[in-house]
Amino acid sequence: MNELTQFREIWSKLWEKWHNASIALSPLDSIPPEILTLEAELKPLLVALLNASDPEAEELFASARAIRDQSAGRVINLRAAVDISNVCRVNCSYCPMRRDNLRYVQVNRATVEQIVLATRSAHVLGFRQLFLQSGEDPLVVGTVIKALRVIGEERNGWHVVLNLGNLSLGEYRALRQVGAHGYLIKHETANPILHLAYRGETLQKRVQHALWAREAGFYVGSGIILGLPKQTDEDLANDFIFLGRFDSSVMASCAPFTPSDELPAEFRNYPSGDFEKTRRFIALLRHCFPAARIPATSNLDSDRMTRASGDRKSGQAEAIEAGANGITVQFTPLEIEKDYGLYDRGFKRHLVYVEKAEQVAQETNLPLDLVR
């Protein structure tokens, strides 16, 4: 694939220039002209690769798998997820957990005891990575801090990643001090117009909070939603460039948009993100961030996701075979999960339990990184 060779050559040059210019410290600020020129050369190659023919895509996936196996390991990286709160202060148009939907469900926040018990269950099964996520609910920070103190006292060796949204620098520091290691704060879309329209807040604000999390000592991951209304292939190319500028080399993600009955009409009736284009984006992430944790997201198996009729493996397995290496497994107490609703309320959305992770391992012939 000539385009892939050119893409990787330009990416390598950009990577060096981004680092030399410390672009990750301010990825939205004024960018030197020589970097902008290289980025402009990269964009049409990105678009071409996102729309590569099936035979070309198979070559892309094969090379991504080889890079993953060598740089990240030939293993599926598992995280035990505990959902903390269904309260969210923002009203994102693409998310069923948006603020307006809280009127239809009971406010539900996990207690310290519930978080600790869920963690114990995961530990017994061999999990050593913990993922605590929540709607953007400032009231959960204290609960998470207390829970992490208990978890740290009980067992050493947990690797903790948080996804709690926009917090203050002081809150990030407090969470880091009690043992959390990573922070996921996806930018979702780097198109500033779409970002403001769909999140009700500016892209600059979102990125500032990600930079604060990094300043507090976290390694920080970002990611996108592919297939949002009015999103173009050029937007996706800009998303990819943003991930490079930001240096999302430890965690990077691409999740397809999935519609939900609980979204505004424009989003409720909009088709799901392109499954094959999502796989191509994942493969390119692997080429550019060789050792990163790149997840195969659960909504790749949503019943609202359109896939080719000939596909026989699960959507998550197909993403793993495109270069992804991460799966997140649910350990949220049922009384919390029924109201959480990241993709849909109740049990309509696709939830990943240990059995599904084992299925993906069997489909891909890759082991799970459980401690037995």
What characteristics describe this protein?
372 residues, alpha/beta, 14 helices, globular
Task: Describe what this molecule looks like in 3D.
- By secondary structure, the chain is of the alpha/beta class.
- It is 44% helix and 10% strand.
- The protein contains 14 helices and 7 strands.
- Strands 6-5-4-3-2-1-7 form a 7-stranded parallel β-sheet.
- Strand 3, helix 6 (169-177) and strand 4 form a beta-alpha-beta unit.
- Helix 2 crosses helix 9 (233-246).
- The protein is globular.
- The mean pLDDT is 94.
Q: How would you briefly describe this protein structure?
A:
The chain is α/β, with parallel strands linked by helices and 372 residues long.
User: Radius of gyration from the CA trace?
Assistant: 20 Å
The N- to C-terminal Cα distance equals 41 Å
DSSP E strands, number:
7
Q: Which whole number gives the mean pLDDT?
A: 94
The neighbouring-strand order within the major sheet is 6-5-4-3-2-1-7
**Structural class, please?**
alpha/beta
Tally of contiguous helical segments: 14
